[in-house]
Amino acid sequence: MMADATTPGGGLLVLALMLPAVGMLAIFALGLRHAERIAHATLLAGLAVALAVAVKVGQSGQAMTYLIGGWRPPLGIALQADGLSAVLMVMTAVILCAVGVFARGSFSSPRDGAETRRPFVFWSLFLGLWSALNCAWLARDLFSLFVALELLTFSAVPLVCLDGSRETLRAALRYLLFALAGSVLYLMGTGLIYGAYGTMDIATLHHLTRADWATSLALGLMIVGLMAKAALFPLHLWLPPAHAGAPAAASAVLSALVVKAPFVLILRLWFEVAPQPASTPAGAMLAGLGAASILFCSVMALRQARLKLMIAYSTVAQVGYLFLVFPLVMGSAAVTPWESVGWTGGVLQLVSHAFAKAAMFLAAGLIAEALGHDRIADLGGAAKAVPVTVAAFALAGLSLMGLPPAGGFIAKLMLLTAAVETANWWIAATILAGGILAATYVFRVVGSALAEAPEGAGTTAIARSRELAVLALALIAVALGFLPLQPFDYLAIGRGGMP
Amino acid sequence: MTPATLYGLCAAALVAIGLFGLILHPTPLRKVISFNLIGSGTFLFFGIAARRGAAAGFLGDPVPQAMVITGIVVAFAATALAVALLLRMLEAGAPTVDGPPEQPDDLSP
Amino acid sequence: MTAAGLLIAASVALPLLMALACLWPAFRDRAADWLVIAPLPALLAALLARGGSIVVAPPPLRLTLALDDVGAMLLGGAALLWAAAGAYAGSYLRGQPGLARFAVWWLLTLTGSLGCFIVADMTSFYLAFSVASLAAYGLVSFEGSTRAQRAGRVYMALALLGEAFILLGFVMLAIGAPQGNPLIRDAVALFPAAPLRDPALALLILGFGLKMGLVPLHVWMPLAHPVAPMPASAALSGIIVKAGVIGLIRFLPLEAALPGWGATLVGAGLFTAFYAVAVGVTQTQVKTVLAYSTVSQMGVVAAVLGAGLMTAAPGTALLAGFYALHHLLVKGALFLGVGVVMATGPRHRKLVLAVMAVLALSLAGLPLTSGALAKYAVKPLFGDGLAATFATLSAAGSTVLMLHFLRLLGGAAKPGAETPPAGIVWPWAVVALAAFAGPWAIFGGATALPLAASLGAKALWAALWPIGLGAVLWAGLRVLRLPAVPEGDVIVLADRLAPVVARAGDAVEQADGWLRRWPVAGMMLAGLAAGLSVLLWAGS
Amino acid sequence: MSLVVDLFMVLLILTSAVWTVLARDRRDAVIAFIVLGLQLSLVWMRLMAVDVALTEAAVGGGATGLVLLRACARLQPVEAEGRLPGLRAQIAAGLLCAGVGVALAAVILAPAAPAPSLAPAVAAHMDEVGLKNPVTVVLLAYRALDTLLEKVVLVLGLIGVWALAPDLFWGGRPASLRAASPSGTLTFLARVLPPVGVLIGVYLVWNGADHPGGTFQGGTVLAAMWLLVMMAGLGELPETRALRLRRLVAVGPALFIAVGLAGFWMADGFLSYPPEYAKPIIVAVEVALALSIAVILGLMVAGPAAKEPER
Description:
The structure holds 4 protein chains of 4 kinds.
Chain A: H1 11-30, H2 35-60, E1 64-67, E2 78-81, H3 83-106, H4 117-138, H5 142-160, H6 166-197, H7 202-208, H8 213-230, H9 239-245, H10 248-258, H11 260-273, H12 280-302, H13 307-322, H14 325-330, H15 341-371, H16 382-385, H17 387-401, H18 407-421, H19 425-450, H20 464-479
Antiparallel strand pairs in A: 1-2
Helix pairs in contact in A: 1-2, 1-4, 2-3, 2-4, 3-4, 3-10, 3-15, 3-20, 4-5, 5-6, 5-10, 6-8, 6-9, 7-11, 8-11, 9-10, 9-13, 10-15, 12-13, 12-19, 13-15, 13-19, 15-17, 15-18, 15-20, 17-19, 17-20, 18-19
Chain C: H1 3-21, H2 25-28, H3 40-48, E1 53-57, E2 63-66, H4 69-92, H5 99-118, H6 122-140, H7 146-174, H8 184-190, H9 197-212, H10 220-227, H11 230-251, H12 259-280, H13 286-311, H14 316-342, H15 346-363, H16 370-378, H17 386-410, H18 422-447, H19 457-479, H20 491-515, H21 518-539
Antiparallel strand pairs in C: 1-2
Chain D: H1 2-22, H2 26-46, H3 50-75, H4 87-109, H5 119-129, H6 134-142, H7 144-162, H8 184-207, H9 215-231, H10 243-266, H11 278-302
Helix pairs in contact in D: 1-2, 2-3, 3-9, 3-11, 5-6, 6-7, 7-10, 7-11, 8-9, 9-11, 10-11
């Protein structure tokens, strides 16, 4: 839909973008004593804004638009919340709130008032990250999205090496360098786009793009740059050590949310910028890489000895599912992509994986805190020490395996249905094989956690509120399984004008 | 051939050269420098677009020029962060050359 | 919302709530003592709520529970066995480490297995089926020995494979349905005309056949059933395999004649019935022999369903259900009884063995036992052809296997055993009684056949001669030296694959290490960008 | 005729670029890169983008070069140079990169005609903002959101750099910038240049409203002066926990956001300015931003805290 004018209540979108940024600056300028309080106040306010946006979008059935400074695109920049954005905003806010509750235990400000590094850095970057994510969900300008991606990278990288150990520093540097390589490819693509069409506005480009070499190269560079940031196989070199090395609260956010932003951008590029109908072989290539990601990295997850590394590899595998949507949507008989089962399944997979993976990483963090290590083979006694956490892990695992009644089940069922409908048998086979592999690696952990504790193993007590935060995320991942099995009208809001 | 086209080809070459360094250099400092080379080439693409879009009494389209300014600053911040990281690794006693011992950085399988 | 509906809902809700309550340490530590009450609502529902239904969530979710005749029959039997085995477990496993964990897996398996009999929509069926399959892993691998762990791994791998078959089959089946998550009834009604009918049918038969142990997908059963603790073996062999039976009953389009598919199922079933006997007689472990007997019996059930599918014979579902119910109770009683025999000293041993002998031969259709009724009930479905002959001969096979079992059982005893604890005797007695009396009580309602005819001389003779033949065969076999076949027979072929799989895993790990080298990843980045651009350009 | 000059320029640039990548010594590579930065700012002049040329010279070549040089100095005694991998890898990567270069060149050689441009749109609305430098108008009005977010990027980058301090040193001073033995010239320059430099910096910011120049260029010059003073040992870097320093960093972005939000009441909404006050507001924001940028750039060059905070 063209962003012609600001819609009523559009100011909320600005708030969604600016609240966390203001919170971050406040922490920076006021010092640590207030960091946690500022962060939590911002979390509450931001959650309220996200919910308000979602409700408003749902009520009006229209996308919300805000023209920054009143300047209309292509000259100005528009923020827009369509159904997809609204869902993503709420998802982000809820997950960050849960992580916020969780992190109180590990990143509390010291009582004596002296500023310490970890809480200061964590809370300020945590808010910076939120700003970046909301920007990625809302911006409709390719260059603003570039800035959003950079915001994201700059907030995420230092979180990886918060511990300051050699391994994490090294992981963070790899992450930074590869992410920058991705960014620069993306930026190159936007430059070519501007050279060809004289605008960065997605809605304007939607009507302009031609299937010529300049556009193809631009899109190719941008999409592959984003793939590097989403860690799709075989560009996943940075993810496992980075996500496994970060503190649990940070890993959860990185794996659940940060890798999703580049994927959502790819979706927008593919369905809103690329000339339609998009190239079938290119869609098959993306899905092929997704399938390889699923199979290859699931096997890798299965072979990890450390819990957090296993979860990190599982993230790469699960991101693979998202890339299956391209041929599924293109081959479907639905009138518009957003009315197809494949699209809905893809988005649902994104959301349910976000909740499940956040819960899993947080649970892994608590298990490691309770037992003092995260070696999968020696997790015995975990179920006795932190039963709620292990239950949360198992529930989240249910979603990853794609078993009912979890959200991941509905998502995979929709993708499977779409694969059968479009006769993409290899995709159907991959989805099923991925489910089997996921079940195997999840069961390996749960089975080990249920075993008896070895003699003389001590455990550390964990605050109940933190366990409950994890459980809440896992329960949401499961509750998503009670969505009906059909394309959701909500996700198509704001896309009426697009063929 | 206009100067813009000539510099455009130069930009393409800069990207290729930078990419070569980014892929092959084993030390992070040289990777960062290579990244900046690619960035410079990329910014020039915007410059070409700006120059070609000269109109309305402007000698270049100011919009891509403004974007380049933003881009240069972001690239600087990235460089500073990467350098700070690699220096910290040095302090922590980790070799900043990536790869050995767990992952030798050559191509032989 | 009716009382019947609520009772049906309670039959899955209570065990589920009990499983959840195990998060609470005070309950968890005592959960094993309460296992007996978990299936009681289901038992009541089977007796009182037949024909009831409840919509747990309205369309478009359409989560629906309903109790039809065949569901009620199996639900009742399963609930009874669950209750008895639960009581048995409380006594049998007292003081064992990890009892609380056992209780959690038990309750989850129970929830799923009972759910299979009462759910009416496709998603819920898949849910219940998965819960039953996957939670049973905890029962299989409970002992923690190397043998149990291997059994658990094999079980899990095949269960997951089965899940995948079924899910894909469901998707193909539902693709013609107008909305998401149709009722099973509606989806199956569309089945005969569905565009993907044949592949869907093949997948469903594979998936459910795996659960029932159709050869060669039976390999997990002789491994998994014997390693579980005695009450769990009873539940696995008696009840969990019935999830496959109810799956076929629900999803085969039994009202449409599909001769090709029917014949396939008959062939696979009868082959399984004889194959399992042949391997079973070479086994030396009591429980393994029972597991092979289950494989054999499930082969018969599959053949029954196949015969019904060939001709669209009315009442097939009920007849197959009736046969399955008989097996459920008898096999449960046999497994529980093995524990009783082991704990019984010479004084009461003869009595216990006698009961076990009748139970065992009941599986072969010993006249006047419930087994004879079951065989009698399904006989007309096979008609007069070759299949009928083989179906009858399968009783001879069962006789051989059961005599082998009884001989092994006679030699099994714990040293110093005297009087078995009451806690394991009465549950066994209850199930044994139900196994004798239950099928008689419901025969008329379930099969619409005249009960008196089953007691006629003709029927008696028809039941007796295969047993005689079996006895002769068994005597003959004792002279031969039988080869030693490992448990799970053809699974040893898969064991040869283990190094291959391990090597493949190593290769993946090496490839990952290579791909994650910076220059390789960098070149991938550039190469993919170029490749994608070319495809985008060329493809549009 | 002029094309020959351009061609010569291109050859120079490519030489620097190749040298940057292939030089054995990392210091040579950095110097080649700095030279390249200067050459590129000439190219930007050729492309009639004076604002970009200034930024490239100040930030792209200058500040980035300084950061890289300092890194070299720290790495030199400790770590050996890395070697490019074997010939096989070089050929493979070379072919691939050449392919990407050719693909890009193909796009350059087939430009869209007529060249698309937003210049007319920029020109059409310049009056509503009241400034005469179109780039500043784009940066602070049409695309003000990007500019604002990019300031947030800078602050996050600074936090990222600071985050690398060891726990013990958190809040302390960064490693001293002071040269081992400041030469007389350096000290002299550090005494003489700053007043001039500050003047130039302020002028660039002020001037940027209507002529080429602006916050970054001005801010960078200010930062350079500050660093010069530190390097000559005439001043100490502040402790990173000092709240006054923190507020200097935050003041620019904070004022920008505040002005933006004030737009909800005073003008048409976020980041719009009341027409009659547009110019003074923008200039005020630019001044604050320049100040923050100067401090941030200086601190990013200085690096994370390297001493324990004083009691």
